[in-house]
């Protein structure tokens, strides 16, 4: 894995494979925004059992599909604290490597992880900006506040059905999905022209800060 500060206080870790990425980030990410395990201490075994029963793909196939379901990850630095304090022990080798990578980085920062897909990197940088840049977040929230109720309801359903997002992260996820994954939202029955309009507005904001 390679680590680079792509924007001020936003660190990007690039992995060779999707499985290496997702298996490294799993417990960090789900402690941050899982609808079930947010702010809770849990084992990988506990999470796997829940994911099979509650993710759309997991339920359909009756197997743990997480490592192939997710291609990008993002967490604020404070999420590392309980891992450093030993609350998630025993840690996996991959978790230990990630923690060691940021052991000497000071202050508040954001970590994103991908395995080489440009669209995914853009998606995760948007998360980083939403967390670290107050001006970016303010402009984005202004756009989101004007989304019609029907569209927002369908986006929320999409995020809820995935099994991966706590309600507290829905605004952040909405802006990132509108920026890079409008085709998936179109599959939810949202009008394409409306999505294109929203994407253009958010992309113009994104380009100002990158």
Fold blueprint:
Blueprint: E1 2-7, E2 10-14, H1 18-33, H2 44-54, H3 56-61, H4 66-69, E3 72-76, H5 81-84, H6 93-101, E4 110-114, H7 118-132, H8 134-144, H9 149-161, H10 170-180, H11 182-186, H12 192-209
Helix pairs in contact: 7-8, 7-10, 8-12, 10-12
User: How many β-strand runs?
Assistant: 4
**Unreliable stretches, pLDDT < 50, 5 or more residues?**
none
Order of helices and strands: EEHHHHEHHEHHHHHH
What class would the helix/strand composition place it in? alpha+beta
How much of the sequence lies in strands comes to: 5-15%
What does the model show?
With 210 residues, the protein is an alpha+beta fold. The chain contains twelve helices and four strands; from the N terminus they run ββααααβααβαααααα. Strands 1-2-4-3 form a four-stranded mixed sheet, with helices on both faces. β1 and β2 form a beta hairpin. α8 runs antiparallel to α12 (192-209) and α10 (170-180) crosses α12 (192-209). The longest helix is centred in the last third of the chain and has 18 residues, at 192-209. The chain is globular. The relative contact order is 0.15. The model has no long low-confidence stretch (mean pLDDT 95).
Keywords:
12 helices; 210 residues; single chain; alpha+beta; 4 strands; 59% helix
Summed up:
59% of the residues lie in helices and 10% in strands. It is of the alpha+beta class. The protein is globular.
């Amino acid at each position: 894995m390679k680590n680079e500060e792509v924007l001020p206080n936003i660190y990007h870790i690039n992995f060779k494979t999707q499985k290496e990425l997702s298996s490294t980030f799993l417990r960090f990410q789900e402690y941050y925004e899982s609808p079930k395990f947010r702010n809770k201490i849990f084992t990988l075994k506990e999470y796997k059992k829940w994911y099979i029963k509650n993710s759309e793909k997991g339920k359909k196939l009756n197997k743990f599909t997480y490592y192939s379901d997710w291609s990008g990850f993002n967490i604020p630095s404070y999420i590392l604290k309980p891992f450093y304090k030993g609350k998630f022990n025993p840690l996996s080798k991959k978790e230990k490597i990630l923690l060691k990578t940021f052991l000497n980085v000071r202050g508040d920062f954001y970590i994103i992880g991908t395995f080489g897909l440009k669209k995914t990197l853009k998606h995760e940088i948007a998360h980083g900006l939403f967390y670290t840049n107050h001006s970016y977040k303010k402009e984005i929230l202004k756009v989101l506040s004007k989304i019609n109720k029907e569209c927002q309801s369908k986006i929320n359903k999409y995020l809820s059905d995935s099994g991966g997002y706590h309600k507290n992260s829905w605004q952040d996820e909405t802006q990132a999905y509108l920026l890079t994954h409008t085709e998936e939202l179109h599959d939810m029955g949202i009008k394409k022209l409306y999505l294109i309009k929203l994407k253009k507005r958010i992309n113009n904001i994104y380009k100002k800060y990158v």
